[in-house]
Amino acid sequence: MIYENYINRIKNVVAENRQRNDLTKAWTSYSDIDVLSKTKADLLKEQKLFNNKLQLKAQPLQLIMHPNIEDARIGLHPDFKHLKGTDMMEYHYIVSVFIDIKGSTNLHNEYDLEEIYVITNTIQSAAIHTCLSLGGHVQRLQGDGVFAYFGGKSVDKNQAVKSAVIACSMFTYFVDNDLNKIFLQDEIENIKTRIGIDFGDDNTVLWANFGVLDVSELTTLSLHTSLASKMQSWAKSNGIVVGQNIKDKLEADESLFDLVRNSKGEVTKRYIFESEKKGFRYTQYSFNWYKFLKTLPNIRSDESGNLYVIDAAKVEEERINSLKSTGILINSGNAFLNKQGNISNQPTGVQHQPHRFHYVK
Prior knowledge:
Elements: H1 4-25, H2 30-40, H3 43-51, E1 89-91, E2 94-102, H4 113-133, E3 136-142, E4 145-150, H5 157-182, E5 192-200, E6 206-212, E7 215-221, H6 223-232, E8 239-243, H7 244-250, E9 257-259, E10 271-275, E11 280-287, H8 289-295, E12 299-301, E13 307-309, H9 312-332, E14 336-337, E15 343-344, E16 350-351
Parallel strand pairs: 5-8
Antiparallel strand pairs: 1-6, 2-4, 2-5, 3-4, 6-7, 8-11, 9-11, 10-11, 12-13, 14-15, 14-16
Helix pairs in contact: 1-2, 1-4, 3-4, 4-5, 5-8
């Protein structure tokens, strides 16, 4: 489980809360309750140590970068930090990601402030660590949410888009599945996430220093930076909305994208931005992150639909076995090529014809 450490961190806080509540209801002596309360004094120290280390248990992809988290700096993208405090400007592409976390207000019904801090901070840390692990840069924290960039001067544009989508899909799975189970016993309304992702190309993203003196930020000025945060507001609970540019560069199956619809299936907001003056309309799409994760080479699902990661050696073993099976099928003379270009034994496509090579001196 990729997020096992985060789950256990939250589970421990929730368990201590229930234990303290049980002691209170049973009229246990104050000394017993005090012993439990004393552990809360260490929560801040423990959380700092937890946050300062990448806690992901498995490599989601072989491209994972494992950066030194101590080198990460909020708001200072390493490729553009030379612009900080200057009047210089620079054009360069970037992928903008806005991860919004909802529902934390409901935690006040059950937990105290120290516990809520650990819970919400652990969830936010999971988002930050996920972005960092896949090469992202955290630009700013907005409440419980995270605004991040993917890409840079040495990163291929398509790879930056893919890394951003993988990171957001992984985090959404974590919130939708793992977190959901923790709070059910306390009847806490589920914590949800909504995410917007968009890509701005080299000629549409301006990097510059905004503000004055120390009240300033190195950031981007771009329609697509702004649209990422707007798109998340159109996402369903635990949903991801992406812009047309993301769809074009991800090179993924068309079935992963759909127009944004309401519960009745009606299209609610096809164009996230329209300019009559420029004759420009920009489409947003609801993205099927669960189906996308299942297409990744080292993601598998069990009988219940739960996803899990297999290591690179297992991926290679499965690839070799698949090639062997295909070879056996071809040699049997019962191989058919379907419309997707895959070889199977189903006589619905074009029958495979054996090749005959004649060699001469």
